From TrEMBL:
The lineage of its organism: Eukaryota, Metazoa, Chordata, Tunicata, Ascidiacea. Gene3D superfamilies: Ribonuclease Inhibitor, Toll/interleukin-1 receptor homology (TIR) domain. InterPro entries: Leu-rich_rpt, Leu-rich_rpt_typical-subtyp, LRR_dom_sf, TIR_dom, Toll-like_receptor, Toll_tir_struct_dom_sf. One of its GO terms (cellular component) is membrane. Residues 731-880 form the TIR domain. It comes from the Eukaryota. This is Toll-like receptor1. Belongs to the Toll-like receptor family. It comes from Ciona intestinalis (Transparent sea squirt). Keywords: Glycoprotein, Immunity, Inflammatory response, Innate immunity, Leucine-rich repeat, Membrane, Receptor, Repeat, Signal, Transmembrane, Transmembrane helix. PROSITE patterns: LRR, TIR. The gene is Ci-TLR1.
Amino acid sequence: MYMCSDMYVRLLFLIVCAKLSSPYKVSGSPTWRSSNCSMLKLPSQDINPLYKVRCFGLSVIPTGTLPPVEIMDLSGNSLTQIESRSFQFCCASVSYTTWLSFANNFLTKVGNGSFDCFVSLKNLSLQLNSLVQLEAGTFHGLYSLETLLLKSNLLKEIPYESPKRLDNLETLDLSGNSFNSFAFGDYFSQKNKPRSLKKLYLADMDDLNIHKAPESCCGGSCRTYYEVLDFRQLYNVKMDTELFRCYHIDNLYFSEFPTLYEPSILDALRCSHVNNLHVNTGGEQAKSSSLVLTDASFKSLTYQNCNETFVRRIGLNFVRLVEVRKFVFSNIKGLEYIDLSKNQIHRVDPEAFANVDNLRGINISHNYLQSVPMIKYTYNVTLIEYIDLSWNKIFQDKISIGIVPKRFKSIYSQTKSVVLAGSWFTYAFADYGVSALESLNISHCKIGWFDLGHISQLSALPLRVMDVSYNNLLEIPIDWLKYLHHLEYFDFSGNHVVYNDEVDNAFKHHVNLTCIKFNQVLNIEQGLNTGIMFSGLMVKQLYFIRSNIRSISSSAFTGSVHLRLLDVSYNKITGLEKDIFQTNYLLEELNLRGNQIRVLDPSTFSSLVNLRSLDIENNRFLCNCDIIPLQQWIIDKLYLTVGTSRILLRNVTCSLHSSRSYVDIIEWDSEALCWKKATKIVGIVLGCLLLSTACAVFGFSVRFQALFWYEMIKSKVSYHKALPRNRSDVYEYQAYISCVPDSVDEAWVVRQLLCAIENPPYELTPMKLCFPSRDFKPGCPKMVSAANNLRLSKHALVILSKDYVANSWTRFELSMVSEMWRNSERSAESLIVVYLKRHGESLVGVERLPVLGVRRNAWLVWPTDVADRPSFWMKLRRSLAK
């Protein structure tokens, strides 16, 4: 009795283990078994695991029971409807589901209460289907739902009660449907809207009429907040003029600028709070050919009877703007940032940004500006901090060559660069009250020289960030920099430096300068090695990436005591002096990646007590005894943390000179390759002695194999010399026997083959065969004998077995046969193969001997049945007689 109960317990345990194994195959009713569904156990620390369901090729929703499911993916099938009772048999299992997708099906109907069992569902996707209508109770019970995607269906409306039940809904996507009219207030008023709705998408619709604004409640607790409202790709849209009156919107999206010409859209924004107004095509080309911003473009935003319109950011990207005329953004209360980048702007009116009281930043990068715009700020515009003019085609038609030094005239005329006049700064900023400009980006603009006119007034600007990278500058603008006393960040990357004495004192007036970039500046090495350029500065970050630096002197950073980050990666540095960082005790990050350093002394970093990150990857370290101190230092810093701070080291590799491969310097076994100095000579002597002994022993053990290969190569090279010179069609032998020497095959030849062919029964004609063990001439080299006898034999008879392919002598004989084929002395029909197939053996593979494969269909197989052997001998004699 106890044995029976123990057996049942074990059987039950095996069944439970099989069901809990991963991946879990869906079981239950026959419908689930027949469907193409699989289930993968999700990683979890809970006792009861959760699973992910993925199904393909479904036309109806399967039925039956399921284990607990967290993710159910039924997208990309052929489902046409979801019934209210589709999940009734697995209701308990789907109560754990948080992510459900029916995307990319053919759904036309979703019944009431279809999702009643999904009490924990947070994400539901019904996009890319053919839904025409939703019933009022479709989403009943989804109290935890946060994201609902109904994009790209055929919906003309959604029931009034549907979104009202979704108390935790945060994202709703209705884009790409067929709404002709959308009663915004019915769904998303302060009274009816889901309390947590933050993102609403109504993009990609035509002839949409958005009407019925919410209740007239605009203050304090009544105001409704949205993070995202998306109205991109809306064409011929009409909006209620007070649609957003009581809304506070962080990000409002329109597709392209022609939409803003429709008064109803901008009228709907009056008296609203919009932090960011985005007008772009998402990187795609705008449908209009060209656009011009005029003073009437944003007229509705400056509505005189409204004092509560706050648009803080306007972005107009990828919309093919060609011109910005005057007073475009006038009187837009709260506007702080304007982004006009990635367009085709050729001209900006000097008064385009007039009367924008709170403007702090302007981005006109990636356009076609051919000159620096003379921007006027005619009113109280004193907060401007950022202007980006990078990636333009700034070029002035009339340039005074006289302002360029004589030594640069020839270079200047060839590069056709830009002269950036100091009068532009004084006219555009200092003379018009813009006294708070802190950041200026004029990179990638082909600027070749800075004019010196009126530059003394630059001292009135608190400019902290200046980016002149990737222009055609031929020297550092020292005369400009000396008036920018507040400068903290200076980027001169991608330009050129002609070294002179003034370069050493380029930054002597900038005690607050903390970050300098000289990336891809090819002639900066001489100025760097003097040690004067950055001496006495507060500079904390220095960048010299890809600047063709070959060496750094020990005095290069002597005066940079505040330096915290140094990046000299991807140069041609071959080594560092030991005292190069003697005064840089505050240095925390050092990047030496991609140089040509072979040996690095760890004592170089002895003074860097605050070093946190060191990158010496992709250098040319050699795995030899000289690298052992660096290896030990790296190991100490990585693993021995007592009393010191651990340094974050990147992957460091060294190259093995013998194999030209790279290994991790920590994993490289230095003790196996390097000896201590005291035992170095003894080790070399012992090594030479052992090597000579090993060579002698090895040579003695393989002397016969070496002789064999020597004769084989010699026979291949001088094949014709090894053969008799007299050519005759009279053969001495009917066939040359090729078999494995001293083997069972050779015994078969003696007992069976020679008796049956040379001494045949009855009155059959005897045939003479060349058997190497019997017919080779004594004293003659074996290779030469084989070549002679093959030449005197009409056929080559191969005794094929399992060991034939692996034998070196038989491979040599076949090479001689193929050589005769190549010289047209024998044809493929001269090769006869007898296959000695033992009982239970599979067919031997002859891939390594393609000569045998030529005649594979003509092989003669030695029969195991004695009654079939007379027939075998007759076939063999006929083959030999041809």
